[in-house]
Every structure is written in C-alpha cells, then in structure tokens.
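Q: Hi! First time doing this. I have a protein sequence and I read that you can turn it into a structure. Is that right? Here it is:
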Amino acid sequence: MARHKTRTLTEVELEFMKVLWTKGEASTEDMQAALGERGRDLADGSVRKVLSILERKGYAERRRDGRGFLYKAKVQEDEAHRSLVQDLLSRAFGGSAALLVASLLDTAPVRRKDVEAIKRLIAEREREERR
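A: Yes, that's right. Below is the predicted 3D structure, encoded as structure tokens:
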C-alpha cells in the first residue's frame, strides 16, 4: 500500500526543520552534519530528497549559492507547531480539544508547572471571550 502523503511534517521532516530554525540557513552539507550530530546519519541524496519535499510542502525555500543551494525555513516554528496540532486534533480527536487534552493528561506525566501554565492560558482565553 502506498504511503499516505501529508501536508504536515513527518518526524524526519520535523528534524530537518529544527535544524533550519536553529541555523537560519543551511547547505545540504550543513544539514547532513547537523543531523549527524543529532544521531541521524543520512546520505547526501537522502538529505536532498527531504529538503525537496519540504520545499514542495511549502515549509522551506532555497536560493542559489555558487554551485549549490542554501535552504531556509519558509514557515516559522510556532506556525508549524499549530499546523501539527491542528492535524492531530482533526484526524485523531474529531476536532475535540477536550478529548486531546484528556488523552494527553491520561498518557503522559504532566509537570505541575505545566498544569499551572495551562490553567493560566485557559483563564486568559475565557477573559478574551467575555470581551
């Protein structure tokens, strides 16, 4: 069966984007070295393929630099995070934020400071909605 193509980022694509968000701009060689430092050793052709996919999806762009290209993120990190969460919310939880949060709280240990931050965010949202 053919792999489902998604507009959101796969795990590997997200790793590539983290490098681009950190570096700002990178050649394929820079990407290969940075990913290798993170424990993901990829051949040059694989790096180019993933960068091409990121370009096609609209997450990255490239510019000519001598005989090669330099790549940079076209999408900000927070925008990509929102897109990933929206995709998960839609596909796995039928659009229910309550189910998503309940699943998170049941699945992973959530630190007290994170719970407090979530409560503050909810309170802020409620204040905004009353205006």
